[in-house]
Write a structure and sequence with these properties.
Blueprint: H1 23-33, H2 37-57, H3 59-75, H4 81-98, H5 107-129, H6 137-143, H7 149-185, H8 195-208, H9 213-219, H10 221-235, H11 242-245, E1 253-254, E2 257-258, H12 262-283
Antiparallel strand pairs: 1-2
Helix pairs in contact: 1-2, 1-12, 2-7, 4-5, 7-8, 7-10, 7-12, 9-12
Length: 301
C-alpha cells in the first residue's frame, strides 16, 4: 500500500488483529506465582503493561467491530408510538395546509387517519422485528482500505500500531527479566548495556534459575531476532541493520525498512510468553522471591 513518500505493508486479514494475550496464559502464570509475593508483584507490572499493549495491537479489529455494532444497534432501533403519532400529526397538518383549498380535514377525520397511521406503523415494526439486520464485518473492514486519503490514513494507523506494539511488548519483557535478575542477585541496580552488567545478567539466568532457562528466555534465536528488530525500530528508523542481514529473520522489507504486521507480533509473543512461563516456574520456588523488597527497584537500561 503506497504512501505519498514511502511504501508500507499492512496485513489485511482482520482475524490476525486479535487474541494477542490469551487470558488463560495470564491465569496460569499467576497461579504459579501465588506463593511468591515478589514475583507476583513483578508479574503484575508485566501483565498490566502487556494488556494495554495488546489493546493497542488489536485496536484495528476493535474499531471496525465497534462500527459494525453501532450500525447494527441503530438498525435494530424501534420507533416509539409517541414518535409515530407526533410524526403523523405533523404530516396531517402539513397536508391540510397545502390542500386547504381542495380538501377539508375535520378533527374527526384527522384522528381517524392518525389512528390508522399508528396501526400501519405497528404492523411495519412487527414485520421489521422478524428480520435480523445483517452487516458483513469483512465488508466494513475492506471499506476502510478504499483508495483515498481517509483509506491511506487508516492503513497508516494500522501500520503504526503494530510497530509500536512490537517494540512495547519486547521492552516490557526485557524489563521483567532484568527485574527478576536483580531480585535473585540481591542488587538494586543492573545495567545490561555495559559488559559487567551483561555478564551478571547472563550468569543470573544461567546459574540462578536453572541451566536451560537462558536458552528459553534469552538465547533463543527467535528472541534474538526480536531483540535486533526492536533495536532497528527504536534506533535505526526501522532500517534493516547489519546484524539482521546475517539472519533469516523472515520480515518483509519496503524501501529497506522492516515491515511489522500482526503475524510478526504474534510470532514474537509466542516466545516471550514461553520465556515468562519458564522464568516464573523457576523463580516461584526461590527464597529471594518470597517477600517484596522494602525499597522500590531502580530503573535500569
Amino acid at each position: 500500500m503506497d504512501d505519498a513518500s514511502r511504501t508500507i505493508y499492512v496485513n489485511c486479514d482482520l482475524v490476525a488483529y486479535g487474541n494477542f494475550l490469551p487470558d488463560e496464559w495470564a491465569e496460569s502464570v499467576f497461579e504459579k506465582a501465588k506463593t511468591a509475593p515478589c514475583l507476583d508483584n513483578l508479574l503484575l507490572d508485566l501483565t498490566q503493561t502487556w494488556r494495554a499493549v495488546a489493546y493497542t495491537a488489536s485496536m484495528p479489529s476493535a474499531f471496525v467491530r465497534s462500527v459494525q455494532g453501532a450500525v447494527l444497534s441503530y438498525a435494530r432501533h424501534k420507533t416509539s408510538d409517541a414518535s409515530i403519532a407526533s410524526f403523523g400529526g405533523h404530516v396531517l397538518s402539513r397536508v391540510a395546509d397545502e390542500l386547504r383549498d381542495e380538501v377539508s380535514l375535520s378533527r374527526k377525520l384527522r384522528r381517524t387517519i392518525a389512528g390508522r397511521i399508528s396501526v400501519i406503523a405497528k404492523e411495519f415494526r412487527e414485520q421489521a422485528a422478524k428480520i435480523e439486520p445483517q452487516m458483513s464485518i469483512e465488508e466494513v473492514w475492506q471499506e476502510f482500505f478504499r483508495k483515498d486519503k481517509a483509506g491511506d490514513g487508516f492503513a497508516q494507523s494500522i501500520w503504526g500500531s503494530q510497530r509500536v506494539s512490537y517494540v512495547a511488548f519486547y521492552n516490557e519483557y526485557e524489563a521483567f527479566l532484568i527485574q527478576c535478575a536483580k531480585v535473585v542477585l540481591g542488587k538494586s541496580s543492573l545495567r545490561i548495556t555495559d559488559k559487567s552488567g551483561k555478564k551478571e545478567f547472563y550468569d543470573a539466568l544461567r546459574s540462578k534459575f536453572g541451566t536451560d532457562l537462558f536458552d528459553v528466555c534469552w538465547g533463543h534465536s527467535e528472541i534474538n531476532i526480536a531483540r535486533l528488530v526492536r533495536h532497528a525500530l527504536s534506533h535505526a528508523g526501522g532500517q534493516e541493520t547489519d546484524d539482521l542481514k546475517k539472519l533469516n529473520h523472515g520480515f518483509m522489507l519496503a524501501d529497506g525498512k522492516i515491515q511489522i504486521g500482526p503475524q510478526h507480533v504474534h510470532r514474537m509473543l509466542r516466545h516471550l510468553l514461553a520465556g515468562v512461563t519458564a522464568l516464573v516456574a523457576a523463580a516461584a520456588v526461590l527464597p529471594a522471591f518470597a517477600t517484596i523488597p522494602s525499597q522500590p527497584q531502580d530503573d535500569d537500561d
